Amino acid sequence: MSSGKAKGQQFLKGEDTVMKKDFDVIIIGGGPGGLAVGSMLAREGVSSVIIEKDSTVGGRYRSVDFHGARVDCAVHFLVSLEGTVEGTYMYRLFSHLGLPLEYKVLPWAMGKVTKEKPGNIDFLEMDPKLGAGNFFAFFAFASGVEMEDSTKKALLRMADICEDMSEEECRKAVNVPFSDWIDKNVEDPMGKLVLYGMGPVIGAPVTEVNFGMVANSWRTFNTVGAPLIWYFKNGNLQTAVLDPLTKYYTSHGGKIITSRTVRNILIEKGKAKGVRISDEQNNNMMEEYHSPVVVCAIPIFEAVHKNVLERRFLTKDWAEAVKQFQKLAVYDLSGFYLLRKDVIPRDGTGWVNIYDMDYGIPTYIGDVCSGEFINSANEPPGKQIVCSMIPGTLEGTNFGIPTRWDKVMEAHRRWKDAVEKAFPGFNDAIEDEAINLQLNFTRYAYAIVPTEVDIQSPNIKGLYFGGDSIRSIGTPMSDKCFQLAFPLCDRILDYVRA
Ligand SMILES: Cc1cc2nc3c(=O)[nH]c(=O)nc-3n(C[C@H](O)[C@H](O)[C@H](O)COP(=O)(O)OP(=O)(O)OC[C@H]3O[C@@H](n4cnc5c(N)ncnc54)[C@H](O)[C@@H]3O)c2cc1C
Questions:
Q1: Cα(479)–Cα(78) distance, rounded to whole angstroms?
Q2: Is the preceding omega at residue 205 within 30 degrees of 0, hence cis?
Q3: Pocket of ligand 1 contains residue 53 by CB under 6 Å
Q4: 381-431 pLDDT, tens digit each
Q5: Does the structural domain 9-57+258-327+445-497 have CATH classification 3.30.470.20?
Q6: Nearest C-alpha to atom 21 of ligand 1 is from which residue?
Q7: Which of 21, 101, 109, 267 sits at a 20 to 30 Å CA gap from 388?
Q8: 372 touches ligand 1 (CB under 6 Å)
Q9: Residue 31 C-alpha to ligand 1 middle, in angstroms?
């Protein structure tokens, strides 16, 4: 029990009630994963409490204030493999809860920067109508070489094979290295070369990437052509997702306790019993909250790393997979720039992958997002706000753990150079800038670790995992959190009602 009054205790509103009360369900972490499962449970009349270590909920979905404009701290865009926003689990969750979600589909453009044409950026925009043809167009754009028909045929065959695979079949193929699959199934030498060359796009050499993950995205290629990129019609992640979910959750009986860090999960006789909490500032143990159901909605590797989840709560191969995942974890760099005047055109340049020819075969340098994309309504008058995204997995950057600052700065310089080439005057126009480095382990590492971790502890009854997790197959990036909320809710309901 509590070691007495600790600093910061005033944060707990109605603390006495909270501290003595048992909860039906305890959710650790108030990121999108925690809010999604909490809201689903609230809809079913199951009361829960979210315990969040920061002073506000949101996790890596938080938006921050930058010169009066709210910008998303980490996330830059949302993705659908289905070709429709309605097909995403975020959309399904919002519909399920009766909440509106207004969206816009964004053009996904590749920008090629060349020294020969300063001030010019060549764009290739993905066209969903082209299906797999997008791949050929992209190849020709990036390499400057048209693909032979025999190569196109070989790649179309691969798209056909993948299209016929079910999610379950993809899941079974996570143990097959992509390179093995290519060697066995692709005869055309150029086709082989193209697929081997996909490593940097996937984020790792094809020898390390599993075929199941590749097949899962390729199976939509014929119909969708390229993943659909979308964002909200109005507002940002804070106003379009976090605020309505928080409101829904709390108005349906959910409780949120902020500025409290869960240190351990309490177990008794093989069953979840609750959590032990301290405050973040002075690490004082303050309280134990009790519940037969605990949902660990913080990223699983962080939870294991910080010993919130003990390895004994996982199977041996899950624990091994989490360890591997931790080793692969990288940081991504987000930058925010206030420009004195408009430099990035506002038409058709919402979000662009920049490839720079000066680094050899067009080298992917990072992304640029214009102010329009990040809610131009809030930009200071006469100024432009621009965002960057530099993945830590880029060749020659690799912001691993621990991250070397000189590598980060080098990648940042490369990005600025490339943007300057495409949009001259960019560097001069910068009035203020801020960068933000955050761990983003889900980006590609899931393609390399073949083991999937389920949403339920195999050893401890009543213990569930609801944050970023190791699910190789399924929906990409943060949409996974919303996807997991559905089966999590079902399993928890079965357990509490049994
Ligand atoms: C730089 C970057 C770019 C990204 N880009 C995209 C993108 O473009 N599109 C996309 O879909 N996804 C993107 N993501 C991924 C997305 O942010 C995550 O998938 C998503 O936030 C995961 O949600 P979560 O709830 O599992 O974890 P988080 O968002 O990390 O939330 C976990 C919460 O738990 C809290 N917490 C942690 N430990 C404890 C503890 N011991 N006790 C109590 N609380 C605790 C944290 O403070 C946090 O609020 C990006 C991530 C990063 C970092």
A1: 8
A2: no
A3: yes
A4: 899 999 998 988 777 777 777 788 898 999 999 999 989 988 889 999 999
A5: no
A6: 60
A7: 101
A8: no
A9: 6
